[in-house]
Recover the amino acids of this structure.
């Protein structure tokens, strides 16, 4: 079946490959540099390699997908039979991806609308899936755009890093938030607020921070019609996923997507990070995850 409207996102969406493929969502890879050598996220660079580089003290940075990578997505959409493309990007306040895609759209082989999700990780990735569900049902271009926007607005993205050092180095947190992380015995609970990383609460331990995040996500899920929860960690932190699932199972029976944090997000979050996302998605996405 051909989708008249194609949907794409960037690799910071953390979408598992099989999930992106099943909903025909294309993914443009971000770039990660290690000691001034640049790699394309995915086959060239894994989150594990980034974690190893961080622990070794290497200089690690990130940048948006190359213009060619974004143009490749538009050309894929055209070749796949689509008449238009909706690109769901991570927040424009923390990356130039949306701006670059806007520029690329001028020479794309089909109309492109860029939706700034205002968030990151599976909060953006699940919004892209929700938009694709509308496309799969034969929705018009404007309907697919509207669904991406609606789902993104419904989302919540929270995370607790073991340290704020990597976020500070990458300029993803301001001095005030960084100061919280340096306070003795304080673990910050962070989230995306109006497109930027902000401090949500302060806790005395990682255990308490994780519990507070899970409680916040579960409470938010109870207000949604079709919630899907995302749990994301890095290699070596898989035990955090089992703990999170166990806690969530005591609060409700919601679909859960487990994913690794992308290599680009790993560069800023660092090992020991637990990230959570929740999105009120299209009913067809919930049905596919529950089958």
């Amino acid at each position: 079946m051909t989708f008249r409207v194609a949907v794409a996102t960037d690799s910071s969406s953390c979408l598992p490959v099989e999930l992106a493929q099943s909903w025909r969502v294309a993914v443009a890879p971000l770039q990660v540099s290690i000691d001034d050598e640049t790699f394309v996220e995915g086959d060239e660079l894994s989150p594990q390699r980034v974690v190893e580089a961080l622990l070794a003290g290497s200089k690690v940075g990130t940048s948006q997908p190359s213009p060619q990578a974004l143009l490749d997505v538009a050309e894929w959409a055209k070749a796949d039979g689509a008449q238009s493309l909706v690109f769901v990007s991570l927040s424009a306040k923390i990356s130039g991806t949306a701006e670059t895609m806007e520029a690329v759209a001028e020479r794309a082989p089909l109309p492109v609308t860029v939706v700034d999700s205002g968030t990151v990780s599976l909060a953006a990735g699940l919004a892209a899936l929700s938009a694709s569900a509308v496309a799969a049902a034969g929705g018009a271009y404007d309907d697919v755009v509207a669904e991406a926007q609606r789902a993104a607005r419904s989302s919540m993205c929270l995370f607790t890093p073991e340290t704020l050092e990597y976020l500070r180095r990458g300029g993803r947190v301001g001095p005030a938030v960084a100061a919280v992380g340096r306070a003795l015995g304080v673990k910050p609970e962070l989230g995306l607020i109006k497109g930027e990383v902000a401090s949500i609460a302060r806790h005395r331990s990682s255990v308490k921070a994780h519990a507070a995040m899970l409680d916040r996500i579960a409470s938010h899920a109870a207000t949604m019609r079709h919630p899907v929860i995302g749990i994301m960690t890095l290699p070596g932190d898989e035990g955090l996923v089992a703990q999170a699932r166990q806690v969530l199972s005591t609060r409700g029976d919601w679909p859960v997507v487990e994913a690794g944090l992308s290599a680009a997000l790993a560069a800023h979050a660092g090992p020991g990070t637990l990230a959570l996302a929740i999105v009120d998605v299209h009913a067809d996405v919930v049905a596919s995850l529950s089958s």
User: Anything to note?
Assistant: The domain at 5-153 is CATH 3.40.50.10170 (Rossmann fold). The mean pLDDT is 93. The chain has twelve helices and 13 strands. Residues 30 and 66 are 8 Å apart (CA to CA).
